[in-house]
Write a structure and sequence with these properties.
The complex is a heterodimer of chains A (about 400) and B (about 350). By secondary structure, chain A is α+β, with helices and mostly antiparallel strands. Chain A contains 14 helices and 14 strands. In chain A, the strands form four sheets. In chain A, strands 6-7-8-13-14 form a five-stranded mixed beta sheet. With about 350 residues, chain B is of the alpha+beta class. The chains are: A alpha+beta (about 400), B alpha+beta (about 350).
């Protein structure tokens, strides 16, 4: 038997977790780009470094983003991946598919690309991993013209919005995350496809404070479902949990961060004015407890990964907003923010960094939102205040 | 025959892709129960039920495997399926009797099920050496090695709470790992190597200077050519300059490696969302299986699983026991690199005499 050309990668076919090496090998059976991807990866493992060139601009006619150019540093050694561009395809809300649609994408990708994908990329797109410059346009023509898919975002544009599974299969959803995700995506196609912002802008929609899409860490605007009224309690179901062995005192009441619950062995009492919507009790007893009926979302702003000035979590901008089509209140807010950011942001400055630079108070004034104690964890403890007015004697 | 492109059509409407039982019960789900590792049921107000089988995935999928997955969805799920925010594959079944045959077929394909509840779900991760120009480590390879080791916690649910593990192959963090229970982060450790010969031709110098968060880059002239120089004492290897200027390479096999971060979360359950904190500043890149990284992650999971109280996430557990005890229990060395020296560093100093001995 011939010796393997990829002894190091072969090691990663062992073990119980499904192997990406096996996936590349499967594609390599019929595709030369995948074959050379495997070889270049083995070489990267030998050298302990990546072997891809920086950037390269390629694209689709009429679009400014959606394709990431990628060229190899050693095209003569790995001709199959000389150019190996990524195409970001906007995923459907909630990552639901029919097998028909997925097969159609596979057929088109077999024709024009490496046969390798990411399901999904970090921002949520379907990632078609590796094609040539000449294939990009015909690939897009078939994807959009036949399969009905469009490109996602890249560069300084609105990145592809994404959302949790929401009301499609989750009882915690406090608004329709799939509908809002679709609506914003469609309303802002120009912003998605033509990068004219200072830097990227991400929307993520989570149906409840469990935040399964990590919106509070990863979105310039995080839209997190919540409710204003009382937790819905089914007392019989509470008893059933207790009878089935759940230690309500220890596992629910003691873990409540606001101590707003009491359990006397028969009845669960909740002081809803003190509840901070953390979700713990509901997570533990989903049969017995549900979010209230007056539902909407908390809108938070500014989270991002470290580049450029350091990582941030989003902070509260609107404590509670009702969300139903056409979402005009939300869109008005978004557009005011985009205007201010566009006018005042520096190149490669995310909105969260702009807010750090100008101060949340000034930012609120500019976008015409009233300051509220819901927006802070504490008032300032530093006395260096920039008062904007003072009295003069007449 | 050429096909005409359509522009700005957006993604297909999601309603086209919802299985009938989902469409009928959209917004009507009442509660759910985890039936066993990797399997849960959601019950609707109408009494309808939907069974979810959550399968692992390497995220990097060939069309061969996608088609095989589609075959299973055709066979058991009326031709529909979905993916999760952590790259798992979810099969939604209206018929309970299909669960076992589906799980059996998945196992035959090498796709174990799990990742629901108090478990380790699939790792989110970036591209690494498979596709990225700024990677300080590979992504898929490290993930594979780590998940092989943590496998028992994917297929079971015996941890105090869920543990979310994530990997980003450089500080750009397109995987946004900074709020994970355990974050594996590729790091560079050496200032950029500057290609003075070509820099002025391929980089915009003012943009390059502006890219540096510590203003460590200055203009210079080398052998008559305009270029830049880096004040190495102020370089923290963030890679911002490289992002805008390809002539400033950071990749360096001797010095690139992995840092380990612990205790972040995004959920609001009990405690507020929080960042992950540094516990190991650097481990070597040791492909193909990164044994040092695997060992460190395994250690954190073991110590957490033995010491945390029920429902405590890693960060909540550490907040209760305190960082001195975390370092004691894990045996990880505490160094000056663990102490922040960037903006607001003082907020991370211990500003009280409340100490456990």
């Amino acid at each position: 038997m011939a010796e393997s050309e990829t002894p190091m990668l072969d090691e990663l076919e062992k073990g119980p977790w499904p192997s990406f090496v096996t996936e590349i090998k499967k594609a390599a059976e019929t595709n030369d780009a995948a074959k050379d991807l495997l070889k270049q990866q083995e070489q990267a493992y030998k050298e302990k470094r990546g072997l891809w060139k920086h950037g390269g601009i390629v694209g689709i006619v009429g679009y400014g983003g959606g394709v990431i150019g990628r060229y190899h540093q050693r095209p003569e050694d790995f001709p199959g991946v000389q150019s190996f561009h990524t195409v970001r395809v906007n995923q459907p809300s909630g990552w639901f598919y029919s097998t028909e649609a997925l097969r159609q994408i596979c057929d088109i990708w077999e024709k024009y690309g490496s046969g390798l994908t990411n399901l999904h990329g970090s921002t949520g797109d379907i990632i078609l991993l590796g094609t040539t410059t000449k294939n990009i346009q015909p690939l897009f023509n078939e994807l959009s013209g036949e399969a009905g898919f469009d490109l996602g975002g890249s560069g300084s544009d609105m990145r592809t919005p994404s959302c949790c599974v929401g009301p499609a299969r989750c009882e915690f959803a406090c608004y329709d995350t799939l509908a809002l995700c679709y609506d914003l995506t469609m309303s802002y196609q120009d912003e998605l496809h033509r990068p004219f912002f200072n830097y990227k802008w991400k929307f993520k929609m989570a149906g409840c404070p469990n935040d399964c899409v990590a919106s509070i860490a990863r979105a310039d605007m995080s839209i997190i479902g919540t409710w204003r009224d009382d937790i819905q309690v089914d007392p019989d179901a509470v008893k059933e949990y207790a009878e089935a062995g759940l230690d309500i005192a220890s596992d629910v009441v003691r873990r409540c961060p606001t101590n707003c619950m009491q359990w006397d062995g028969k009845e669960l009492a909740i002081d809803n004015r003190e509840c901070n919507r953390c979700m713990h009790c509901i997570n533990v007893m989903p049969k017995a407890l549900r979010p209230g009926k007056d539902r909407g979302a908390t809108i938070l702003i500014g989270s991002k990964a470290p580049i450029v000035e350091g990582a941030q979590l989003s902070s509260v901008l609107v404590p509670f907003m009702k969300l139903s089509p056409p979402y005009q209140e939300l869109k008005d807010l978004v557009e005011k923010i985009w205007d201010f950011w566009g006018e005042n942001g520096k190149a490669r400055e995310r909105v969260g960094e702009l807010i750090q630079r100008v101060g949340l108070g000034n930012f609120l004034e500019e976008i015409e939102v009233e300051p509220s104690p819901y927006m802070i964890s504490q008032p300032r403890d530093n006395p260096y205040i920039f008062y904007e007015e003072y009295y003069e004697e007449d | 025959m050429t096909v005409e492109a359509k522009r700005d059509i957006g993604p297909p409407h999601y309603e086209k892709f919802l299985p009938p039982v989902v469409k009928d019960n959209y917004g009507k789900w009442k509660y759910h129960e985890i039936l066993r590792p990797g399997v849960m049921v959601h019950v609707s107000e109408t009494g309808a039920e939907i069974y979810t089988v959550r399968s692992s995935s390497p995220k990097l999928l060939s069309i061969v495997t996608i088609r095989n997955i589609c075959d299973l969805a055709d066979k058991y799920c009326d031709g529909y399926l979905r993916f999760t925010s952590r790259n798992n594959i979810e099969f939604l079944l209206a018929n309970k009797a299909n669960i076992d045959p589906l799980v059996k077929d998945l196992a035959a394909m090498g796709l174990p099920i799990g990742g629901i509840g108090n478990a380790i779900s699939n790792m989110i991760h970036t591209q690494g050496w498979v596709h990225c120009h700024s990677a300080a480590t590979d992504a898929s390879g490290v993930v594979k090695a780590v998940m092989d080791e943590l496998f028992e916690h994917f297929v079971d649910r015996k941890l105090p709470n869920k543990v979310r593990v994530a990997l980003a192959c450089c500080l750009n963090m397109c995987g946004a790992v900074h709020c994970s229970d355990i974050a594996i982060l590729g790091v560079h450790r050496r200032p950029p190597k500057i290609d003075h010969e070509n820099l002025a031709n391929i980089c915009e110098i003012p943009t390059t200077l502006a890219a540096c968060p510590t203003s460590a880059i200055r203009t210079t002239t080398i052998e008559g050519k305009r270029s830049v120089e880096v004040d190495e004492d102020n370089c923290m290897y963030c890679g911002n300059c490289f992002t805008v200027c390809p002539a400033m390479t950071l990749a360096d096999p001797l010095n690139d490696g992995i840092a380990i971060w612990v205790g972040g979360k995004v959920s609001n359950a009990r405690s507020e969302p929080m960042f992950s904190k540094l516990v190991i500043p650097w481990l070597p890149n040791n492909p193909p299986r990164w044994p040092e990284v695997v060992e460190a992650v395994k250690k954190i999971v073991e110590v957490y699983s033995q010491n945390a109280q029920k429902y405590e996430r890693v960060g909540e557990w550490v907040n209760r026991i305190g960082w001195p005890r975390f370092f004691e229990l894990t045996g990880f060395e505490f160094t000056k690199y663990h102490i922040d020296d960037y903006k607001y560093a003082g907020l991370t100093y211990k500003r009280s005499a409340q100490l456990k001995f």
